[in-house]
Amino acid sequence: MSIDITIVWAAIIFFGVMMYVVMDGFDLGIGMLYLFVPKREDRDVMMNTVAPVWDGNETWLVLGGAGLFAAFPRAYAVLLSALYLPLILMLLGLIFRGVAFEFRFKAPDVERHIWDKAFFGGSFVAAFFQGVTLGTYINGIKLTNGEYTAGAFAWVAPFPLFAGLGVVIAYSLLGCCWLIWKTDESLQSRMRELAKKLSWLILFNISVISIWTPLSNQEIAHRWFTMPNILWLSPMPILVALTMWKLSRAIEHKHELSPFIYSLCIIFLGYIGLGISVWPNIIPPDISIWQAAAPIESQRFALVGTVIIIPIILIYTAWSYYVFRGKVRAEDGYH
Amino acid sequence: MLTAQETILGFNALDFARVQFAFTISFHIVFPALTIGLASYLAVLEGFWLKTGKQVYKDLYHYWLKIFGVIFGMGVVSGLVMSYQFGTNWGSFSEFAGGVTGPLLAYEVLTAFFMEAGFLGVMMFGWNRVGRGLHFFATLMVTVGTLISMTWIIASNSWMQTPQGFSIVNNIVIPTDWWAIVFNPSFPYRLVHMAMAAFLATSLFVGASAAWQILRKQDTDAGRVMLSMSMWMLMFVAPLQILAGDMHGLNTLEYQPAKIAAMEGHWEKLSEAKTDKGMPLVLFAIPSQTQEKNLFSIEIPHVSSLILTHSLNGQIKGLKDFAVEDRPNVNVLFWSFRIMVALGSAMLLAGLASAYLRYKKQLYTSKIFLWAITLMGPTGLIAILAGWITTEAGRQPWVVYGVMRTKDAVSLHDVSTLALSLALFVFVYIFVFGIGVAYVLRLIRKPPVTHEGDEPIGHDNIRLPVAIASEFGGRS
Q: Would you place residue B456 in the very low, low, confident or very high pLDDT band (cuts 50, 70, 90)?
């Protein structure tokens, strides 16, 4: 049996983007939660829970881009050009968010508020436009003679904008649950309160997107609601409902780690659902992964390193999280 | 909405895409150039401290680590933009050559970016969380990461300059020999030239910080060690860099003769050259692209022949040997090259002066020298920019030399979209990186503090940025 290397590459990119969504998701969520936490000491703690790891988390986004470039150059070229403005705005958001980590602690006291705003605003803009990008992508990148002709503002439409809000809520929930795990006392209880509200919001959001997507897209409706697909896909909504229930109980019972795990599961399920809707296309609705694939020589060359190196990356990333394990407290920085 | 053919302020869509790339890459390169140098410097400092136990090395380590953090952060966010810009703005290039440049970028991410990012947290905040050996290991991993990163991106860029190891099938580049692709003819020269440039720029930056502190009556032992180490580096590397630059130039002459002709301001056709008369070195000139000659020039006879052919009367191709549409912009190359060479010569002189003053025991006291070194702080970075402008503008009108023209490489956006994105980049970069540079300057205004970061070792004693804030934020 021979393995289709293009499918392996699709799986790697799917995995890389998922790692990004999960890991930078809670970083960006923490940034957005700044809005609800005015106290400086609390904000210090929130930022410090991710300061040692955020850069590694963001690198998965670079891998997503570079992996696409290496294995599916046509998709890289077409998608990134078609999604031009949302991606540029996302990158600019990530600039403000990224420098805030360093600048906020180096700024004179009177300027710190600039970087609080940059951290919140940058995280919000980055998350929102990631959602807009996703929404536009699911709606389909229609090509005429191989060129994208829908214009620079095709993303200004109800579905992409709603997806933008969806990602904002999802990341906020992740960040909130991360902070329940990494902090204690008043900040932790504040996060518990927020997590309850956010889990209702995300349930609403997932429901709307799950109904809206098949309604507006016949192909996706066909994929989900015909026999036999409907049989083996039916556990998906049930799993989402079950996880939501477990999440709300975990928050209610003041568990520390499990809300974060359940929120990860929800993101994961939503992400799988999107994958099912799009597969095997990489530029929906018309271009499949095989049509956009790089020359086999390029796929092979890049794959050798990737399968060897990604496990090593996972090991030292885990080690870095291990080094910074435990609760982060305000006094930690002041020795 | 305006289409790709229309113009805003005389710029069409292609011009905007090019300006945007030039703008974003120019800002970006400054930060990795310094992080490559500073990471190595930090590794040396920590290594010296572990070996000798001298407090001054540890103080310097903590001092430069803060500055490294700020610069690294700016490098990360401006670099993220670059990794997406090939697709957002140069889609046709990416589709055409992605089979080669895509895997090279992927390897850079896998072998370098993750390694830097994964160990950076421990390097920056793990001083009291891991043992000395493990912390040093983290520093080394970050350092090696910066060097690996440079190697891959230089391989990719050099392949675009001197492409080989591929064939073209259905208008797509198919890699046929990866060894030939990575080790393409200009790669070793460009790699060595850039590595030394990063070390020089960093040593000038560190040296200027020290000199400035000494001049401002903040003469500390740590400051002297900084100045001394950076001047050793300058003294040894500046001459080596000139040698490497010369070899790089000869390599360019072999593979990209039009670039050399433009750098030299040399027009005459090889077939019309008089073999008994060598080529002069054009010191200064006003080259005219349209009139195909230098309107005014100051020349030294035979010297250009000597440099480029290592003989008195040797001749090379002039710009007229190339079709008008295949020539790079002479004015840009002529001047950017001269700026780089002039700054390189100044570095050589400064290195020699430092050796003399060190011998005379006046290295830390000669006012005029300290002023000169302070002023030379940014020259390493300016030389890097001038050098990259020379090599990148010199590749024009090609994006992949001799294979794909820049005008065929661009994504089809309408001109108003590009004007908008460029305006956003200019505004954000000047605001964010302007303030970032101001914060770096604030950090180097104060000399290193003794026993900084000397907390007792304990598990909960995490050193997070708040500690740095309490040291610096409060004293503005």
A: very low
Task: Name the pTM for this structure.
Answer: 0.91
Measure the CA angle with vertex A182, ends A178 and A188; round to 5°: 85
Q: B22: buried, middle or exposed (CB in 10 Å: 19+, 13-18, 0-12)?
A: middle
- Residue B301: what pLDDT? 86
Element housing A288 (H / E):
strand A287-288
Q: Is A143 on the interface with B (CB under 8 A)?
A: no
Whether B195 is covered by a domain: the verdict is no
In this prediction, residue A330 has a pLDDT band, given cuts at 50, 70 and 90, of confident
Q: Is residue B461 part of a domain?
A: no
Work out the average pLDDT over A228-247. Answer: 85
> Is the distance from CB of B63 to CB of B472 less than 8 angstroms?
no
Q: Count the Cβ atoms, other than its own, within 10 Å of residue A81.
A: 24
In a domain, B372, yes or no: yes
CA distance B31 to chain A (A): 13
* DSSP conformational letter for B11: B
Per-residue model confidence as pLDDT tens digits over B218-244:
888 899 999 999 999 999 999 999 999
Residue B233 CA from chain centroid, whole number:
17
Q: Is B378 helix (H, G, I), strand (E, B) or coil?
A: coil
CB atoms within 10 A of CB B320: 18
Whether the pLDDT of residue B462 is over 50: the answer is: no
pLDDT at residue A3 above 80? no
Amino acid at position A143, single letter: L
Cα(first)–Cα(last) distance of chain B, in Å? 49
Please tell me the distance from the alpha carbon of residue B468 to that of residue A209, in angstroms, as a whole number.
Answer: 44
Residue B261, domain extent: 200-408
Alpha carbon of A125: minimum distance to chain B alpha carbons (Å): 14
Q: Residue B405 phi/psi, 5° resolution?
A: -85, 150
Q: Is the pLDDT of residue A152 over 90?
A: no
Asked whether the CA dihedral B459, B465, B466, B471 is positive or negative, the reply is: positive
User: What are the tens digits of pLDDT across the range A49-84?
Assistant: 999 999 999 999 999 999 999 999 999 999 999 999
User: In angstroms, rounded to a whole number, what is the distance separating the alpha carbons of residues A127 and A147?
Assistant: 27
Q: Which residue of B has its CA nearest to A306?
A: B110
Q: Which residues on adjacent β-strands are paired with residue B398?
A: B405
Tokens of B28: 């970006």
In a domain, B175, yes or no: no
Query: Beta-strand (E) ranges in B15-159?
Result: none
Residue B207's identity, in one-letter code, is G
Predicted local distance difference test score (pLDDT) of residue A146: 75
Please state whether the peptide bond connecting residue B257 to the residue before it is cis, i.e. omega within 30 degrees of 0.
no
For chain A, say whether B421 makes contact (Cβ under 8 Å). yes
Query: How many domains does the structure of chain B reveal?
Result: 1
Q: Report d(CA A215, CA A220) in Å as an integer.
A: 9
Distance separating alpha carbons of residues B272 and B363, to the nearest angstrom: 53
ipTM associated with this complex: 0.91
* Strands, E assignment, B94-253: 166-169, 172-175
- Counted residue by residue, chain A has a size of 335
Cβ of A297 within 8 Å of Cβ of B174? The answer is yes
Could A62 and B119 be called an inter-chain contact, meaning their C-beta atoms sit closer than 8 Å? Answer: no
DSSP structural state of residue B34: H
Residues making up chain B, counted from first to last: 476
Partnered with residue B397 across adjacent β-strands are none
Within 121-140 of B, beta carbons closer than 8 Å to A belong to 121-122, 124-126, 129-130
Compute the nearest-CA separation of B18 from chain A (Å).
15
Q: Which residues of B touch A333 (CB under 8 A)?
A: 462-467, 469-470
Contact by Cβ (8 Å): B458, A36: no
B405-427 pLDDT per residue, tens = 999 999 988 899 999 999 999 99
Q: Do B102 and A71 touch (CB under 8 A)?
A: yes
pLDDT at B183: 97
